[in-house]
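hey m, so remember when u said the tokens were messed up on ur end? i reran from scratch. heres the input so u can diff it against urs
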Amino acid sequence: MDRIATDTQRSPYWKRWLSLHAYGVVTSTLFGATTPPDRMRARFERFSTVSRASMQRKFPTLTFEDHAMGPLAMESVCAVKSPACVILHLHGGGFVFGSHASYRNRAMRLSYRCNAEVFVPDYRLAPEHPYPAALDDAFAAWQYVKKVRSQKPTFVSGDSAGGGLGLSLLLRLRDLAAKMPNGAVLLSPWTDMTASGASIETNRHKDLWLSRRHIETWAGYYVGKADPRTPCLSPVFADFSGLPPILLLAGEDEVLLDDAMRVAKAAAGAGTSAQVLIGLGMQHDWPLTLPWLAESRSAWNQMRLFVEQHCNAQDES
């Protein structure tokens, strides 16, 4: 496991403090541990969705495409003229909320920063569709992307629940001896449905949004009747041998810090290249939610370098 230093770029204290605490107030108010799933979905779509037209007025060269695999919808976003690679991004939202529309702005940023075309599928959400519905949809999306962009280096990325889902997808691909991505970039991944990581407690007074109650309540929606220690449900308990290179990012003060750290350690122990970037003083998903901070720009630079480094690696089969 290689730990990447993150203190080379630091925002002024006042800017960092205001940004982090505003983030905490908004997220804890709108997305409480016991907020009904349908209410969280409506709120997230309302506050996060940006129309294609409004984005293209600001960025005229931005392009979008619609894709469908039966009932599974997916949108691709491209912010660069000649993308060097393709990224399948699995959105966050606790497996309960989020969509390609509410992740459109984040997908654009990922496209621009990593010189990539980004695909975001609308995988099925819990509690209506518990495990393995999201994983089945992620696998279908991967197969589709590899078919329509077969000549491009391809990466998997994901944040929060989508980060854990990205790991689950890698495990399924390996177990099926299917083509693997060139690498995976996982931001604040939720990898343990049992909430057994030490940071659940050690960071409980530092995390400005998430708590044990969040993790246990939302895990219950997704786990359904399955065993929460199932490796493709809680990848932290998996064997990580035979996987492509992985870059993990986690905020120093978030309760899910150990969900990333334990994966990085286990992956390295299994012979899989694993780098972990810790955002000093940062919260959950900080590069996506607080992109104006110097700490976020530093994280984006590391993601870009990781993609560039592995872009020319030969796909595994």
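this time it looks ok to me. Residues 1 and 269 are 8 Å apart (CA to CA). if urs says something different then somethings off w ur setup not the seq
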